[in-house]
Amino acid sequence: MSSRIERELFATQIRYLLGDDDDDRLAAIEALVTRTWDPAWDPDELIGQDGLPAIVTCLDDKDPRIRSAAAELLKAISEHGEGDAVVLADALP
What we know:
By secondary structure, this protein is mainly alpha-helical. The chain has 5 helices and no strands. It is 71% helix and 0% strand. The model has no long low-confidence stretch (mean pLDDT 90).
């Protein structure tokens, strides 16, 4: 179970992914990718807060760094046993 602070952080990062500010989107997606490096990381909170549609949106970003990080994050989510959630979020062409 995530703490209140972690839930709020996820909500803020998801909001940044959907925002207009390029720097905010890049910082948010990179922060989310960095969290996957923790062996105890679990994508449940991100999925539970409807973060997948925001990540999928980043796959079409004009910045290749954002697109790449989004793909890396979706891969990490799939590797943690949530491949069905990634497919249901229309992440695959």
